[in-house]
Amino acid sequence: xxxxxxxxxxxxxxxxxxxxxxxxxxxxxxxxxxxxxxxxxxxxxxxxxxxxxxxxxxxxxxxxxxxxxxxxxxxxxxxxxxxxxxxxxxxxxxxxxxxxxxxxxxxxxxxxxxxxxxxxxxxxxxxxxxxxxxxxxxxxxxxxxxxxxxxxxxxxxxxxxxxxxxxxxxxxxxxxxxxxxxxxxxxxxxxxxxxxxxxxxxxxxxxxxxxxxxxxxxxxxxxxxxxxxxxxxxxxxxxxxxxxxxxxxxxxxxxxxxxxxxxxxxxxxxxxxxxxxxxxxxxxxxxxxxxxxxxxxxxxxxxxxxxxxxxxxxxxxxxxxxxxxxxxxxxxxxxxxxxxxxxxxxxxxxxxxxxxxxxxxxxxxxxxxxxxxxxxxxxxxxxxxxxxxxxxxxxxxxxxxxxxxxxxxxxxxxxxxxxxxxxxxxxxxxxxxxxxxxxxxxxxxxxxxxxxxxxxxxxxxxxxxxxxxxxxxxxxxxxxxxxxxxxxxxxxxxxxxxxxxxxxxxxxxxxxxxxxxxxxxxxxxxxxxxxxxxxxxxxxxxxxxxxxxxxxxxxxxxxxxxxxxxxxxxxxxxxxxx
Length: 578
Hints:
Blueprint: E1 2-6, E2 9-13, H1 19-25, E3 49-52, E4 59-60, E5 71-73, H2 77-92, H3 108-115, E6 139-141, H4 151-159, E7 165-168, E8 175-178, H5 194-197, E9 204-206, H6 210-217, E10 223-228, H7 249-259, E11 263-266, H8 267-287, E12 296-297, H9 302-311, H10 325-341, E13 348-354, H11 358-362, E14 379-382, H12 383-392, H13 414-417, H14 424-438, E15 456-463, E16 466-474, H15 476-488, E17 495-499, H16 520-533, H17 543-553, H18 559-565
Helix pairs in contact: 8-10, 8-14
């Protein structure tokens, strides 16, 4: 242990503790902009400078450790003036038009500047000439808002192993830009969006599609349909200060109906449909093991699909051909549901509310269109966008009553609900696979070994004498480690679930941003609690799914199901893919 004094308080902390963490242990806040624990501790922003007795130069608190007897002043005049000057210099190279910034009110630079009472900038403004990347790509880079904190570089390299961002140029011209590609659109970006959720400003943001929704809502010829993904119900209320108990999917449905949506459905329904197809596909491969390559990989995460195609193309043929729940829902809405309504499918405008940026790209693939050439899903809104949409409509969700979701796609099982967390897809699939093989339901919690936030989990389950070896990974860096191990043949599995975002969809790149706080574990608890409390916990018992098969699809992997619900992952190309 080391004894030191910080702002007059005696502090005892373990050796090698940084000044920043030692101060935090004493309840003393030191502002930061670039710092991310264990990921980005490079003192790039110089905002955390403090004064230490015996040293003429100020020290950065995030990457200097306390020593025995050290005396630290976190907010002395010298430290405060230096911190202020550093922030003013950052602001001189930053577009400070906060009123029209997507992160206004949730921007770390704005907060630090306000806390330092900076009311003007004494330096000449020098904004980069390049303002932003293409407005058509799901991920948009605003160069004039970048503060060169390097968070995006470190997240992309250390956590997601995608290596999209890097520092270019030198001196005052240095900035962050795409690595090994002409522009972002031609890069191997998986569109996981983790760079957005870890950026302290709006230098990175999602493409905003809310105005497309408003145009559709105002078009009398359009029947506007919304689907709400499982992980949305754990997060959408955060932007309005609602508790998980208040921010129910039924309250969000009510808000969307006020906005003008004609139908609001639950993607949990199509998650159950996905399980019916994917579990059947897996069992079909397992019973003809000598004819297939293993493991089979889940395919409901489009960020993972993009990563696999870009970095590990030799595994693409082992991806499940099942479409994601989003795309299955769109395909059914513009076929089965259109027939039920007696309308031309082109009149239906399908909107997905998702926690993800990659979903915006997925709905635009050529392989995700119906026989008329129209997209199965027309537009995807992230959780952040749907919150902005509700604000645009002057809706206060906490003050409205819940409503039931519309039929026939309102029922979703607990198995579908846990899709939003890492391990959830695997657990849901195993519940149904067990029933398909044995004719009986397992204990719903029999496969709990695949739960948890660990980056790489593995287990073996016995299904009627058949050992099924499974693995679950979340975060693309962990996916890369697993795929490397499979290439080296140091591990063997039958079935693998991959989620691009740490923690799964609950930690998705389109979810509300809480700087330096990872919300996935808390959001996942909500999903598992809802699963445990529900009466319906198996996808194969979903009455609306059963009815859809009876009336339209016939059975899993039928000719019609293959046509509508499955896809060819080679049917679209990543940049550089042959």
